[in-house]
Amino acid sequence: MTNQFRQPVQAVVFLLVLASVLFSTGSLRAQGFSKIPPPPGTVSLVPKQDRGLTHFFVDSTLFEVRLNRLRRDTRLDSSQQLLVVEEKYFDDDYRLPAAVDLAYYQKLRLEEDVRNLWTRSVLEHIEYGNRSGAAGIELNIPLRIKNNAFRRIFGGDRVGLVVSGNITFELAGRTESREGSAISSIDQRNNFAPKFKQTQQFRVEGRVGDKVTVSVDQNSEATFDFENTLKLTYEGDEDEIVQRIEAGNVALNLPSTNYVSASQNHQGLFGLKTEMQVGKLSFTGIASLERGENQTLSVTGSSNENTRNIKDTEYVRNQFFFVDDYYQEHFEGDLITQNMQLTVSLDRKVRQLDVWKTVNVAGGNGRTNSFHAVAVLDPAVYDQNRGVLDTLSTRNGYVHEGQFERLTEGEDYEVDYLRGYFRMKSRVDENSEVLAVSYSYGPDANIENVGDLAQDIQANLTDSTIVLLRLIKPQGNQPTYPTWPLTMRNVYNLGGAVTADGFETRVIYTKEGNDDEVDDNGRTYNFLMGLDRVDEQGAIAEGGDKKVDLGKSFIFNLQDGYLVFPSLTPFSPGLFPSSGANVFTDFPDAQRVEIYDIKDNTEELKRSKFAIEVTTTSSSSTFDLGFNVLEGSETVRLNGAILQRDKDYIIDYFSGRLEITDPEARRADAKVDIEYERGALFQLDKKTLLGGRLAYEFRETDFVALTTMFYSKSTLDQRVRLGQEPIRNFIWDLNTALNF
Questions:
Q1: Measured at the alpha carbon of residue 102, what is the angle toward residues 98 and 104, in degrees to the nearest 5?
Q2: Residues of the chain whose pLDDT is less than 50?
């Protein structure tokens, strides 16, 4: 047998022997016994080995009971030709004795010992593989590739693959049986809802020879697509022209070249990159798609001035809710037109508010303050004695019956008792969770209750108690539902608590490609939207004084970091019912943004016209870069000098928190510049980056380099929209460094 076939044959033999070992169903039989089986209850000639489930199930119908006092004896008979095997429990025979020819028994025992040795060898090999560090499956092709061209290109003749990770399957089901439903007789039936979920997280690392490596990192639970990576790398020898080739997720670092995009260090790229060298002449080329968004942050004199733009579509979702329609309709009606003063009637002040949320019965959250409840639009028309009135509809968005838990004020939510709305500490799920309330309102002499308050429930609790609540947000809330206006869409997150010193806000119109903060009549959008109506002394300033009215805390909640527009639909005023006249009638009709009656995020972005520019100033060496900073994309400079990560600064890429540890950053005259990239949440356009850099090194510190770059941005829409026009830029850069 030639050498080229020996290893495959050995592998096949190994697998066959292994299969025979692992899946054997019993001891070998003698030729004589193969046709005539031994009587039931006869002693086995060789001791049985525990395999498979026998290790775990030792006392059941399927598996034998192990007896501690069971004794096995083996002896030769008087003729010295037959071997007698007996099993005794104390002094009694446990099974029928067996007698077999001695030569046959020796052959049988030898085969059994070989079988046990194979099993032990395989188990030790598996255990060693687990201990040796591979956190997954490692496959090395045993055949070496003898082709000389293959070995010359890839630097070796071996191919290997390492796979690590996990795949999880979750199968669950929920059955619900309803009897005596307070809603409808149609609901008095059994429902079964299966649920199947599969998640996968794995990493594949492959190697071809010594030069080519492949890396794949995939996670089905990743929040964004750019978190899943694919990379192929070729590394040439020191004396080869091709030094390195990268494909997939690549990065580009071009020293002294930073004119095409905001940074000379690009991380959010997907494409092809190559590095070549001939003597002292080197070349770097790239052809890629850009997935990141370039950002800059400048700090002067230990004051961190951070400017960020918030799109009109980026309002806080499913966290701010009105207690009832009355408070939603009076939100704008309680304002005085000219100076945005707040006039609230104490007759409708909220006295007590209990917030309820549906319980995830399948998961269970450990809370005990949950009750069976019915949430309706108007609890006043609900008659518990007669069931549901004819005027009560059972459609989605009108009523929900199920298990609700009462949340804790301060821990789960906060309340504005004067204006009748509350803020959830965490976002309510749009599709699966239902929100309801019970509350009381009015003056001390005449307090009215809406729904069942928690204190009354505990006092009158019985097994048949059905709690009555006011429905706020149903499952899958839709613009056509009467509950749609109860969710506030005029609140924007400022990124955390901010101070009034150095805080500035301006609303800008971005649709036509220009950052305009005034309309065609010369009025600022801050003034039109009620953010700037008075001067610093509180007097009415016609057209505003170019400074937002920070004294109005019901608009600027700086402590919690929220901007609450005085209009429910600030970029298209007057959409929802109001108890008074529309105080924002001066808003230009042509610039209205129709984003408050749709749920399609992509369509929202297409309709976007405005942005809120927020500027904050603070004295700190800690900076907020925003979520999902691309790893390695940051360039941090302190007084012009580039800082090193983990030495001069530390950064958390997920939260975007960067802290400079160098004490020079706190000096009054310190200047800090940070250039970085963030992963784009929505890729609505195509950005292409092509180019190369040719450099010649005279010495280690002396060089001359030529860089050419082409940057293209194209929209995916068939019709080009204003502000999203295609861009094509071509530039070149010549730089040198000479030391004498």
A1: 90
A2: 1-6, 8-9, 12-13, 16-17, 19-35, 53-60, 134, 258-262, 362-366, 385-386, 389-393
The pLDDT value given to residue 46: 75
Cα separation, 733 vs 731, in Å, equals 7
In the prediction, which pLDDT does 13 show? 44
Distance CA 267, CA 635 (A): 11
Q: 3-class DSSP state for residue 3?
A: helix
Give Cα 389 to chain centroid, integer Å: 44
> What is the C-alpha to C-alpha distance for residues 630 and 680, in angstroms, rounded to an integer?
10
Return the HEC string of 156-171: CCCEEEEEEEEEEEEE
* Measured distance CA(391)–CA(377) in Å, rounded: 11
SS3 content of the chain, % helix, strand, coil (to 5): 15, 40, 45
339 closest CA partner among 549, 585, 518, 500: 549
Contact 217, 203 (CB under 8 A): yes
Edge-to-edge strand list for the sheet holding 303-311: 504-509, 610-619, 303-311, 292-300, 671-679, 635-638, 641-642
What's the residue count for the chain?
740
CA distances from 581 to 69, 324, 356, 493, 689 (A): 95, 20, 33, 28, 53
Residue where the block lists tokens 């019993």: 26
pLDDT the model gives residue 333: 75
As beta bridge partners, residue 285 has: 274, 692
Distance CA 642, CA 216 (A): 32
Q: Please state, in angstroms and rounded to a whole number, the distance separating the CA atoms of residues 74 and 82.
A: 11
Please give the single-letter amino acid code of residue 402.
Answer: G
CA distances, 654 to each of 30, 222, 706, 707 (Å): 68, 12, 36, 33
List, in order, residues 6 or more apart from 734 with CB less than 8 Å away.
704, 705, 706, 707
**Cβ atoms of 703 and 280 closer than 8 Å:** no
Residues in contact with 152: Cβ distance below 8 Å, sequence separation at least 6, in sequence order? none
Domain positions in the chain are: 3-131, 135-221, 237-291+680-740, 320-486
Are 259 and 707 spatial neighbours (Cβ–Cβ below 8 Å)? no
Angle between helices 102-131 and 3-22 (to 10 degrees): 110
pLDDT tens sequence across 110-165: 888 888 888 777 776 666 555 555 455 666 666 677 778 888 888 887 788 788 87
Report pLDDT for 16: 45
Q: Please list, in sequence order, all residues whose beta carbon lies within 8 angstroms of the beta carbon of residue 42, skipping any fewer than 6 positions away.
A: 95, 96, 97, 98
Strands ordered across the beta sheet of 421-424:
320-322, 421-424, 413-416
Compute the Cα dihedral for 367, 368, 371, 372 and give only its sign. positive
Give dist(CA 608, CA 599) in Å, integer.
14
Strand partners, 284: 275, 693
Tokens read off for 202: 């794995």
d(CA 183, CA 392): 9
Structural tokens at position 78: 């008087």
Put simply, whether the predicted model's pTM sits higher than 0.85 gets the answer no
| DSSP, res 451 | S
**Alpha-carbon 674 to chain mean position:** 26
CB atoms < 10 A from the CB of 45, how many? Answer: 22
Contact 381, 454 (CB under 8 A): no
Q: Distance between CA atoms of 647 and 660, rounded to whole angstroms?
A: 9
- Cβ contact 563:555 at 8 Å: yes
HEC profile for 552-589? CCCCEECCCCEEECCCCCCCCCCCCCCCCCCCCCCCCH
Map tokens 């109506």 to a residue: 533
